[in-house]
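Quick check before the chapter quiz. The format below is the same one you will see on the exam, so make sure you can read both the input and the output lines.
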Amino acid sequence: MLFFLFGSEGKYLDVAGGYGLFTRLMRDVGFDFFWTDKYCANLLSRGFEFVPGDSFSAITAFEVLEHLEDPLGFLLESLSTARTKTILFSTELFEGSPPPPSWWYYAFETGQHISFFQPRTLRLIAEKLGLNFFSHGSIHMFTDKKMSPLAFKVLTDRRLYRLFSWIPRLSLTSRVIPDHFSLKEPNDGN
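Here is the expected output.
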C-alpha cells in the first residue's frame, strides 16, 4: 500500500513498533523504515530508531489503537511528531450495538484491548484530524492524499496480496547488507 502511494522514495515510521520486527521486515524488502515505541525495547531493528525532527511520508501503527485509552491523542501526537498526514493502521471494527461478550476481539483474558471502533467512529476521528478515511476489513488509513476507495480495497485485499506483493520488489533493493555495514561503521559522535 505505501509503495503505491509514495513509490520507492518514501521514508516511514512504525509507531508503537514493539520489538522492531515490522521495521526490520520492511527494511529487508527495501522500504526506508524506522522504529519508535515508548514502552518496548527495540530488539530487531537497532540503529533505525526515530530521531526527533525527522519527517516521514507516512507512519504505521498495526495492532495499536485498541490498546489505547486516548486513541485520538495518540494519533495527533504521532502524526505531529513524524511530520506527516498519513497513517496506515489496523484494528477490528464492529457495526451497530457492541458485540456480545463472546466476541474474540475483546480478549478479556489479557485485559489489553480497551478501545473498540465502528466505521463511523473512525470517520469522526478522520474529520477531527482533517484527513480522508479509507477502510477495508481490518486495515485503515487516515491521509490528506486523494485516493479511490475502490483502489484502497483492492490494494488491501488479502486475496489479491500475492498479485501485488512482487511489484515493490521490482524497484526496491533490500537494505539488509547496507544496514549491516552502516551498523558496523564506527560511531562518529553524530
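If your answer matched, good. The helical segments are 2-6, 21-29, 71-82, 119-129, 149-155, 161-165, 167-171, 176-184.
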